[in-house]
Write a structure and sequence with these properties.
heterodimer, A: about 110 residues, mainly beta, four-stranded antiparallel sheet, about 50% strand, B: about 110 residues, six-stranded mixed sheet
Chain lengths: ~110, ~110
Amino acid sequence: NAGVTQTPKFQVLKTGQSMTLQCAQDMNHEYMSWYRQDPGMGLRLIHYSVGAGITDQGEVPNGYNVSRSTTEDFPLRLLSAAPSQTSVYFCASSPGVTGTDTQYFGPGTRLTVL
Amino acid sequence: AQSVTQPDIHITVSEGASLELRCNYSYGATPYLFWYVQSPGQGLQLLLKYFSGDTLVQGIKGFEAEFKRSQSSFNLRKPSVHWSDAAEYFCAVGGQYKLVFGAGTILRVKS
């Protein structure tokens, strides 16, 4: 099992550009989520999904879109990148559909917006 | 609303010394509590978790944590720290559909 994979590992964007961060898991987990990590702020939930076709907003959803067409994939789209979106992004999955199960994290994507 | 406070941003301990990382939470119901560790440049790995039952929980790598409901705390401990324990540690509380993290504590180990 590869677990949770994320691509790319690093990305530099210019303000206003759009891009998609990819996340995939091969554990057949129903729950997937996206977090951003900023110094001194821990991880903050952006969006989550409790199954294919079902997504919802987390704590900091503005500027990001998600969709879940398959159980395996949960891409995160930045619509018009801003310097405030410079961060490290983590995708996670868990077998249960609540926040009470162990979450398995990907290695992260480090995004810089100039 | 759920929240987690980790009062210490940085902690430095000598190799072989004991360690305690503090975590206080706010949650209206019975909390589901977690400790995750993040090594530099890596994702997060679960150290241990508490759902119910025995308030002293054992985890991987020799870590343990004690749940104290009266103090709303879930402190992480290790009796003897190794240089490889240098990392950032996150406490988290789980609720419906989401996990809320503390700001993290960076552990430095000096030889």
